[in-house]
Write a structure and sequence with these properties.
The protein is an alpha/beta fold and 373 residues long. It folds into two domains: 5-32 and 56-265, TIM Barrel (Alpha-Beta Barrel), CATH 3.20.20; 274-369, no CATH class. The chain has 15 helices and 16 strands. It has an eight-stranded parallel β-sheet with strand order 4-14-13-12-11-10-6-5. A hairpin with a 2-residue loop joins strand 15 (278-281) and strand 16. Helix 7 packs parallel to helix 8 (194-207) and helix 10 (251-258) packs parallel to helix 14. It is globular and about 60 Å long.
Length: 373
């Protein structure tokens, strides 16, 4: 019997607070996972990532398969040792690349043949191979291999894709090697069609996984439709298993999704924004390249404990980006990840205290008001 599991602590409406127990540690939920696609969270050391409050990070099967190779990582002690992250790691199965690298792949019923975006070499991913790679990486949480069509798409296209993913989910599960404290999550597909989402949930729960992800959103459908899809889908998922919304999103996306029963998130937004001078704060976003910051001695965000805020001024951060110094992206990435972790901790505290609606209204009011003079 695996000791992996999600333990609930409190409910506030549909929102859930709990703890995820894994072979590599315990993670408080709801949680945001920084994206470490190729064994690194861009512009961050793992000590820096830890200092933000992150409890779990994400890696990617497709990219690590290409470079440096799963077997090499395994020979060097696994991904935890390789990237200096002893805590839990979730690995995406490579399924998203089936969509995002569509011009470089050929899809069939058995799997996907890729042309590497690095050197054009040919590679094959199947549910079995993806699961094998994630085992070799020593992923705490492995994802089943799926296929996700870009939206908008016809109902027929979405249905065919979802049913293919469900067949691949069954094969992924059969290939998964169960170990204490490790898990494999199924991925619900079906676009924004409630009936297809329900069919997908039935198929996955029939197979049986340690947790369930909702995939195929944040791919162009807009927040309103994404939330409507969550409203229809999340209540169908097992109440005693963790729920993960893949690839989402903005602070308001996270807040709204937690309020609909989601426990886990990942997204490149905070790290990508940090590299392009965009800062997430409690009063909205700032562009540190704007000239108005050039002589501003104030911290980026008062009260934030990250080095960008605690040790530097907006003027200095502006200078770093104008001078194309790499320290600018490093400091702003650090800030954005810290903000995301503080956001999730605040949401979690509000759930535990039964005041999430008021907390959400306050967050959204401050985001809408913008920076105070």
């Amino acid at each position: 019997m695996s000791d992996f599991g999600w333990q609930p602590e409190a409910l506030d409406g549909a929102a859930r607070a709990g703890h995820l127990h894994t072979a590599h540690g315990i993670v408080a939920t709801p949680t945001f996972m920084p994206v470490g696609t190729v064994g690194t969270v861009k512009a961050m050391t793992m000590d820096a990532v830890r200092s933000t409050g992150a409890g779990i990070v994400l890696g990617n099967t497709y990219h690590l398969m290409l470079r440096p190779g799963a077997e090499r990582v395994q020979a060097l002690g696994g991904l935890h040792r390789f990237m200096d992250w002893p805590g839990p790691i979730l690995t995406d199965s490579g399924g998203f690349q089936v969509m995002s690298l569509g011009s470089l792949r050929k899809l069939d019923q058995d799997g996907v043949t890729f042309r590497s975006h690095l050197d054009g070499s040919e590679h094959r991913l199947t549910p079995e191979r993806s699961t094998e790679i994630q085992w070799a990486l020593d992923a705490t949480i492995s994802m089943c291999f799926d296929e996700c069509p870009a939206l908008p798409a016809s109902v027929e296209t979405i249905a065919a894709s979802m049913r293919l993913s469900m067949r691949w989910a069954a094969r992924s599960r059969e290939a998964f090697v169960a170990r204490d404290g490790y898990a494999q999550f199924g991925i619900v597909q079906g676009g924004t069609e409630p009936e297809l989402r329900a069919e997908s949930v039935r198929a996955l729960t029939g197979i049986g996984f340690e947790g369930y992800a909702i995939g195929g959103l944040a791919v162009g459908e807009g927040q309103e439709l994404m939330f409507a899809t969550l409203d229809a889908t999340a209540p169908l998922l097992p109440a005693d298993k963790p729920r993960y919304l893949m690839g989402v999103g903005t602070p308001d996306d996270l807040l709204g999704s937690v309020m609909r029963g989601i426990d886990m998130f990942d997204c490149v937004m905070p790290t990508r924004a940090g590299r392009t001078a965009r800062a997430y704060t409690g009063f909205g976003t700032l562009n540190l390249r704007n000239a108005r910051h050039a002589t501003d001695p104030a911290p980026l965000e008062a009260g934030c404990p990250c080095p960008a805020c605690a040790r530097h001024s907006r003027a200095y951060l502006h200078h770093l980006f104008r001078a194309d110094e790499m320290l600018g992206p490093m400091l702003l990435t650090w800030h954005n990840l810290t903000y995301y972790q503080r956001l999730m901790a605040g949401i979690r505290a509000a759930i535990l205290e039964g005041r999430l609606d008021a907390h959400a209204a306050d967050l959204r009011s401050r985001w809408q008001r913008g920076e105070q003079p």
